[in-house]
User: Fold ACT domain-containing protein from Fibrocapsa japonica.
Amino acid sequence: MLSLGAASLRRSTNALRSLSQGQFLSVRNSSHLIITASGPDRPGIVADFTKAVLDQNGSIAESKAVRMGGDFCIMMRILANQSGVTQMEDLKRSLSSVPNMAVDLREASPDKFGSLGTEPVCKTSFTLEGADHPGIVNAVTSFLCDKGFSIEELHTEAKSAPFGGTMLFLMNGKASSNVSQNFDELREGFKVLENQLNVDLLISQI
Assistant:
């Protein structure tokens, strides 16, 4: 009985070792791909894209989707295992089966922050609300760029103001920097920008 137990243990250990090596090779040989697509909105677009990825043994690592007016836009970062998705063309053909969508597929760029890289030194969130006029987004993002920030998320919306019949512009986002930041100076800079744009503008450290 002891002999059989030892043999069984050896077999289990060898099986686990082989499985572990196989999983390591799978991750090592995998690649990250970026899919961006847009087209007329309709039910089932996300289901169609996820099926196209699954059919090529791809795995979705990150995804974002939004409806903009009458159009639907989607972006995905997928993990493509070389044993299943041997060529980008295979995935392109699978994605092309989704009707009425303009699709772009490319290899992912190196990620200096987040899941593929190191954590940023500094993170911030910001919000803006005020009367809509040209140049608002450029002014805020240029200010952050000059301070060494990279935009991670950005959402904007224009809607009718409750009173006065003017258009109200709303913006919120997140940004990160790989250098330390003085948030008192950032808030002072945002206060100057707030007065220049005649909007309510807030910045917070995450």
Q: What stands out?
A: The chain has two domains: 27-107, 122-205.
